[in-house]
From TrEMBL, chains A, B:
Ranges of compositional bias, category Basic and acidic residues: 321-331
Ranges where the HTH lacI-type domain occurs: 3-57
Domain of life according to the entry: Bacteria
Species per Swiss-Prot/TrEMBL record: Bifidobacterium subtile
Protein name listed in UniProt: LacI family transcription regulator
CDD domains registered for this protein in UniProt: HTH_LacI, PBP1_LacI_sugar_binding-like
Record-linked Pfam families: LacI, Peripla_BP_3
Amino acid sequence: MQANIGDVAQRAKVSSATVSRAFKHPELVAEATREHIIQAADELDFAVSRSAAVFQTGQTFRIALLLNDPSSTWFNAHVYEGLDSVLHPAGYDIAIYPIGTSDDRHVFFENLPIRRNADAVVIASFDVDSKEIERLHSMNVPIIGISALPEEVFDYSIATDDDYAMRLVTRHLLTLGHRDIGYISLDPPENADGSLHYSANRRSNGFLAECAEAHIEPAMLHVPNTSQRVEHALTQLFALDHMPTATCCEQDRLAVPLLSRLQRLGYAIPDALSVTGFDDSTYASEVGLTTVRQDPRDMGARAARHTLGLIARIDDDSEDGAERNNDRGETNDETAGETNNKNNKTDKTPPIHESTQIRMMFRLSTGPAPNAV
Amino acid sequence: MQANIGDVAQRAKVSSATVSRAFKHPELVAEATREHIIQAADELDFAVSRSAAVFQTGQTFRIALLLNDPSSTWFNAHVYEGLDSVLHPAGYDIAIYPIGTSDDRHVFFENLPIRRNADAVVIASFDVDSKEIERLHSMNVPIIGISALPEEVFDYSIATDDDYAMRLVTRHLLTLGHRDIGYISLDPPENADGSLHYSANRRSNGFLAECAEAHIEPAMLHVPNTSQRVEHALTQLFALDHMPTATCCEQDRLAVPLLSRLQRLGYAIPDALSVTGFDDSTYASEVGLTTVRQDPRDMGARAARHTLGLIARIDDDSEDGAERNNDRGETNDETAGETNNKNNKTDKTPPIHESTQIRMMFRLSTGPAPNAV
DNA sequence: TTGTATGCGTTATCAC
DNA sequence: GTGATAACGCATACAA
């Protein structure tokens, strides 16, 4: 029912190869014949079948995205958007594999459902252990990490230096004279895998290190990351011997609503209490939250560009291998040159590990500490 | 390099057909041979190539998702998540086509890049005109609408009744004694297509209708949907002859930060001023915003289930056509019965148009109107 | 610049 | 329950 490339060829009185070229490499087809072909295609309502084309190339044109948190999360949704902004125009689909629970995770790495069915794997926002990485590498496709550790195992990685960034936040509070600081982290609820620390540990480490250097003993609060997170945070804050003069939140996700609620409860912010976040996510600027800026969309886009590069490099390699059996007269010199070039290099170009530039957003939620007791 | 189905067949000493069956229809293969095959496959690190399998079936196993706003939007990110939660397990990829500008949009409908390359098209959160719909239908795949109008053109659609929901919000304010209400809508910025009204018009219509019935003349404010939206809204509010006693926002996206800022600016909410939103999106509950609940994730999931149904139905139809040429002894009766069944029906089952159940979330941002002038 | 021939990996059909 | 084989639609190497 649907016209195929042969039908078009017939109608345009050319071979199917020419039709194929007319679409894939228009510059190799004479202007006139190309127009003929396009017209015939239009009349038959023809379009190249991506499934067939993709199959033909041996590539899958599919990128697997491993996600621990829901894809609708501020971070993940923006990472996805950034990835897609580069990958979609390049003809790639993104398939999300949610591995939020340890079960999911186990099953995934056991079965490796993407084996032979993805040209690259992108891991966003969670850590992987050595066994998992080994499994992943057994697929022989590039592994890309976005805010994922340990970076050495990735062919490309990009991340915010959470530790350092949180140190800066802490210093900011210390400089303002705060000596009584509450740090609030969000703990994954029940069924999540205990080994998924993403950036959380690095952030609290940074905070603790900076406090230690300043000889300060902060209050460390742990709040379950549920819809009741603000209530839990408030409860724990009020349960302290005395309210801190500053609360340092692991994420904007908590800081934004907490800020709002504290104000509502009569706390003068920042006069009585300073609040900091991390991410510069939705509403952070609008509610005036001092925080660290992350641009997950940009991280996704950069990761995607490197992903394409890594995929292309792999293809080149395999082509080299194939080409050794059949010289092609005219372009022989060039080919030989290229091959030599590649042989002179090591097998792979070394992996790149980027760190995003850290930018603090100083806003109205932080101010000098009120006079201490 | 990568093992294919033939390699496995060889190693397991069976035919490739049996290997294929062992994966696709395990029940048709003897227990023993199947185990053999699985083992051989494991040893060779074999996995069925989705590209090849998909190609073979003729389906694309790809769903096109047309998006007007960025995919990271609260609404879109959740719709996507809902769709993917159903489609991914069913073996479908989702490809997002952003058509945010009129250019994008024009190019898309002109070229129809998804022709022959999607098994269904899902349109989220924007309206389509008759020409566009005609183009879409020329692809002969189901068209699904999520919060998109006009619903008649879709094979399945699901939407919130924005008009009615906003009427309820308005009534709530009227009941509280508010007579001086400001309605704030977010207008798409510069380069967006002027014809994209999504739900906005329906909401303001509902508001206006209810006000008219109550013989009230509201202040209608239009704010550009940029990062400065709150500043613009505040400016316009303060520029009014007198502050309204209630502001009715078209979206939480504005209402949440506006609420926060108004409090910060010293407005007692709801004593001096009531604020309402629409969506029940991120932080709405945490800041205590009275709003209308929407569940885009659920809408996406429902839409996805119907999408699969629609695709399956199309497949059945074409199979029927094919099967007329070759009877198959044993199952002949059944087949005949089914075919008759289908012939008794009309070509298609009638489209379904669902309306989500509306639920208002009454919270602390609304209260009785302060004594009027 | 174009045509011919072939292969990509899987699945469905049919015979056994 | 299993094997042989023909598609599926396209892209490429090579010949012309």
